[in-house]
Description:
Chain B has about 160 residues and is α+β, with helices and mostly antiparallel strands. Chain B has helices at about 1-20, 30-40, 45-55, 60-70, 90-95, 95-105, 150-164, and strands at about 80-85, 120-125, 135-140, 140-145. Chain B is elongated and about 50 Å long.
Amino acid sequence: MGKLVKLRIDGREVEVPEGTTILAAAAAAGIEIPHLCHHPELSPAGICRLCLVEVDGRLLTACYHRAAEGMEVHTDTDRLRRLRRLNLELILSDHPLDCLVCERNGTCELQRYAYEFGLEGNRFRGPDYDRQELPAREDNPFIRYEPEKCILCGRCVRACEEVQGRGVLDFASRGFSTRISTGLDRALTEVNCELCGQCLAVCPTGALTERARRFRGREWELRRVDTVCPFCGCGCRITLHIKDDRIVRVSGGYRGFRLCVKGRFGLSFVHREDRLRTPLVREGSGFREASWEEALDLVAERLLTIKGRYGPDAIAGLSSAKCTNEENYLFQKLMRAAIGTNNVDHCARLCHAPTVAGLVAAFGSGAMTNSIDEIVDADCILVTGSNTTEAHPVIAQEILRAVRRGATLIVVDPRLIELAEHARFHLRQRPGTDVAWINGFCHVILKEGLWDRDFVRERCENFEEFAEVVERYTPENVEGITGIPADALVEAARAFGKAERGMIFYSMGLTQHTTGTDNVLAIANLAMLTGNVGRRSTGVNPLRGQNNVQGACDLAALPNVLPGYQKLADPEVRGKFERAWGVKVPERPGLTVVEMFQAALEGKVRAMVIMGENPMVSDPDISHVAEALERLEFLVVIDIFPNETTRFADVILPAASFAEKDGTFTNTERRVRRVRRAVPPPGVAKPDWEIICELATRLGYPMSYSGPAEIMDEIASLAPIYGGISYGRLESGGLQWPCTDPDHPGTPFLHEGRFVRGKGRFHPVEYRDPAELPDPEYPLTLTTGRVRWHFHSRTMTGRVAGLQELVPEAYVEVNPRDAARLGIGDGDRVRVSSRRGSITVTAVVTARVPEGTVFIPFHFGEAAANALTNPTLDPRSKIPEFKVCAVRIEPVGK
Amino acid sequence: MREGRILLARRVNRQEIVRKFPRREDQLLPLLHALQRANPQNYLTPDDLRAAAEHLRLPLAAVYDAVTFYSMFSLFPRGRHIIRVCRSPTCHLLGAIPLIEALERELGIRIGETTPDGFFTLEAVSCLGLCDRAPALMIDGESFGPLAPKDVRELLTQYREVKR
Amino acid sequence: MKAFAEKKVLLSNVGAIDPERIEDYLDRGGYEGLRAALKRSPAEVVGEIKESRLRGRGGAGFPTGLKWELVLKSRAKTRYVVCNADEGEPGTFKDRVLMEGDPHRLIEGMTICGYAVGAKRGFIYVRGEYALSIRRLERAISQARQRGLLGRKILGSDFSFDLEVRAGAGAYVCGEETALLESLEGKRGWPRIRPPFPVDYGFRGKPTVVNNVETLANVPEIMCRGAAWYRTLGTGDSPGTKLYPLSGALNRPRLVEAEMGVPLRTLIYDFGGGLPGGRELKGVLVGGAAGAFLAPEELDVPMDFKSLWEIGAGLGSGAVLVFDETACVIDVLWSVLSFFAHEACGQCTPCRVGTVILLSLLEKVQNGSGDPAVLEKMLKVTHLMKVASLCPLGQSVRLPVETALEKFRREFESHLKEGPCPQCKATTEVHA
């Protein structure tokens, strides 16, 4: 920590770390210095001049100048008050005074100062220098810009550049004509804006506001509910602002204001008319409305019949990474205790099963080792197989912040993803060759003596076997396999090897392969070799996709473990659960997602319970899934919207969305946070946990809880990593597991001093080809992924008009050279086919993809990328190879 | 057809110009000057701005920012020759207003406009640093002054003849 | 009283040599200052400049030697020399005359500076409108390179240094040194908050000497002839000669060079040839648009930093703009304020809004539609701008407004009472 400096502010003695600004030092002493251009999360600008203070007779800019030892600061003298008052008068001389109808009435910072300084009338107001009529702009779905209300503080410009790394906004013109503008004054939608809305979150006036909130409620009429964003694994804290039981706007986010387009503008799905409002029962080819009584009785009766006829293992359940921890716990309890099978899984199988398999083997725990807050202090960041900007926007912001502070960024990704633009090194490997380049990194680091000998000796095992294998992965050999130039590999490896605090981030680009587990093991090797585990700002950090995929795994919506990753095979563990649940816990591990559908086709699984999942879009080889669902004797789906999967259901049960129920989510950094009921569910829809309780009870296993808090208490009593978590403690903020007892503060990073499994274990892994390689018939490699505008199977975002408008349909990215060879132009309709199926989409010709590779986002049911993907599984984790399959493309006649 | 060829030539030319500049942010002003000079109509097109942004790896907004901040850059077509008439306090004192009026009358355009034949654009400038010759003006890089309103016609006629 | 004559030191070559031929410059002892400097240590060169007590000619009058010393002693390895040739101050054309007439003098001065402070690269930021200056400098630089006076191992020494000319693009504010650095970096010319000063945080964040053309042009002379000689010129506080651009109602408007401390009266009546048609002098704007209005009874003020400061004015660029009895002070002030309104950069509130409000208030005076409170309002605004503006541009607007109001108050009042004078009328009609 830096030195402290002591100074006096308005007679109060203050001690702050060296480098603190006068404004921040004053704030620490409880003294607020008026300011408009400054924002604590942005770099100082010093341009509004309101924060001037007197220091030893001189005027200094408090937001810019640093506190120094012995300073005597006066923040509120008569002279300063006069200056500020006059300055405000100048700002207001051309500001519209339409506070009556301004959305920021009551929260406008300019209005507040005008009031506090008693600015009645204005000596300088006049028509002569009124800004010319500047019309409001609404040239994008979400953000309204009223230039007349802009006071040119530049916060939006800095937020766009510093937080989002975009620079979409900047000043334009000069003097009194200065304004905020995009390049060439184009609409935000035309200048590569992410519409994250960071700009409006920091705007001090009504210049930038949410379009959707207009005239829907003044700030003091809005009820606020703190909860958690329902989209990705970043799990940002958000505040819903509600009037008349409708969400008017969203605030909050990481560090108080940072969200992405989905979190800030994508929650209107909650109020959609087409929400499921009442239970539906199949009748002929359609559905009819039914009462809860009727629907639940029917489900119970059918499940009991099937269980009676074929045994409990003929029933399988898919739990949901979108539902709360409590609901996931109850769901697996329903399957295990009420039905008596371990056939429970969820979509984590399709994303991070290799992470769990690999990291448990190497470290003893499958979760992200470190925390989001630590990113900014890393000095080298390796991102691979994660399009972080689009899939985990807030984490990408933190990575950018670290880069701005001098961290080296290494991106290994076949596509020219956005983070690559900020990277010192961008290595573009051939899809599916990850083991090779990771081993290559290890090779270089070993050869150049950049490895952490002490760490390896004291904390790891099996090093020699590993070293022997990577010996063969010379940069030249690696280049042959991966296409990454040898010298680039060496330089990047060196940079990572030399780092003091190296952080690795990865996501599905690493796991969704037949070698997924090997990839993860290789990454773990790299982290151990460089001693980057068990310290702040280091670690192996798999980014979890869904808001609560971490929690769904933690609470054992998995076929082979019990809550808290306790081993199903361990009789003592089973004994504990049997005592608590009062029934026998089935011993045999259950089926995984892909195995369930296989089993359904084979007639081994006869009924399924699906809660909040849409396998008809998200699973590989969809035609196969459809066939399996078709074959089931009974399917019950619990969801908030009708979707591609509910079409196959016999009974559909309407659930409450995240905004309509209490519970907890666990985000990617293992942080458990409270989700709070903000509005009532539509129609007679109910929270999933209530539905499960009623169903279990009808199945002859009574379940009754006063609410999610009581369920959490049961979880805490059974799963040691959640042992210290209770709703009481969560009131004051989140807790990161392991949190073993009520006094445990939670764990920001894992493996400190000791790996969970004791010693970290090196696993020698050899490169293997992907299951399906391009050949003359299918000459291109298809890889799939996300776009920032949509989430997963689009059940939610497809119902947000603005988001749907921005990216309405699927497309395929094709490299210009491939496009030229195939006679495909930008915007052409093309047919993409694999051995499993074909879809028709629009071509986007772009160098974002390398030659020979094409990319399709997987969100779109109508043109589902997963009609093409290969269901071949990684033998250990059973994840299908979503990221590599062979395809061909042909233009379709107009 | 002809227009198409000119556009194509401009594009090729633009790339040639852009390539000469190192990819550093501090090259922005020199690059913009070069692009504007290469345009017979003395202005920067949206494509020029995009090319500069792409080459220097800057956001388009940052390039637009600079172009709109500095008064010598134009985003609109201008004449082949730019008359910059000084309206500094010195020139103002010694008759800049009558001089400007004479120029406007003679050219048939107002400040900021271009003659219909695309020959001259008339601009007013804060100060040209020709105060010893006030009231003064510059046509492209050449200075003239002191000028009385009555000198304007001859000056413009001669200039047209020399440059035609 | 000391009799003042023109004294050509900096201008000794201007008009006497062909500025496009380096030979001419060399024949007249050019680059001898550089040779002399290279024989001494950088610290000695800095010492010599310090001893000469040369003060910056850009307007602020900061001791040049001290500036150089701060950069020389900096811990950063990369350092820069930047010449501020963004001469945009109304009434000022001295740097242009130097660059057009004797470009090598500037190059030599900068090279000496580079050697003294340990810089390897220098930039001359010339305003874009000075096409001829840019051409001559570029030609001179290439000639100097060919002769080994720039580039690697200059004159066989271990010192390498090179120069680049950068053209501005039409923004007065870039004459402010930190705005100039921003512009040099490729950004909009928005001044930085100071401190830190360029000697600590300059071009691309590295220690940088930013000196005016005229300042640097003094350097070769000091190296050749020594600090002691230099101090024999001018005043104790402001040694040396000064370039005074004379303009306005004069028989011989031109650039003159004289020792610091020459009385304003001498400049106007002796060197400038007095006012045409025997007209009476009404006032003088000294130092440029950002300067002060002086009344006829102040003509004996010595034109140096200290003397002008003592009467509440400033030397600024040394510009002298004379207006006679037929001129209207309000109209002159109008053109000063419309200059500032046009050239304000827009960054900080007091100046962005203040310049426009001042102009509009003055227009109320001009067309006689304002009440007397207008004048007090103007003073309120200029006071805010003086203390709260971010950079010297905004801070300096106060000087012309306050001095005009102080010294020509009756003229303002008569406008308010009687409506516009013919000049003001002409001006407001054109700009209506």
